[in-house]
Input
Amino acid sequence: MTFTGADFVELDRIAVQEAVRVVDLATPADWTRDTPCAGWTLRKLVAHMSAQHSGFAAAARGAGREAGYWREPADMSEPARTHRAAAASVLSAFAEPGVREREFALPELGAAFPGGQAVSFHFVDHVVHAWDVAAALGVAVELPEHVLVAALAVARQVPADPARRGPGFPFAPALEVPEGTGPLEEALRLLGRSPRRWPARR
Output
């Protein structure tokens, strides 16, 4: 699978829609739950997801260097509603003709990337974050096998250098992958998640 393949926009759409589904499952009592993102409540995680949607939407339209688009929403009194609106904005931006050929400025990574590759970053991030939300709520994430296989392919490309993992970076240090691990668990472990610590309860 290549970063420039035409399928990442569609794969991203599926991942983002699943993230919206699981965020919408949260009740008012759930927003203070812990998540697999160390130190982040569910409200904080969803604020981060919303900011990433807004930032990537801006990057797709040539405004990625403008810091304001990457800031977490000031009003998170209705997290699911805020997240739905941000998700709609990024899906709309990624659906525009020629998005894969554009240059995306991604300040967190300190560089600009071809659109196809940038969309793949957003895709794998939201496969992981959909799982983060589901794990915090004790439910299962529901993604087709081909989406999980694609996420694993991207996860394997993420640099594993410990100097680029941990606090202040997008992912925690990679964990060992036991033999026979499925694609979702392998992707999560490669990106620093420990899925067996967060079993689905309902």
Q: What stands out?
A: Residues 1-6 have pLDDT under 50 and may be disordered. Residues 8-197 form a domain with the Four Helix Bundle (Hemerythrin (Met), subunit A) fold (CATH 1.20.120.450).
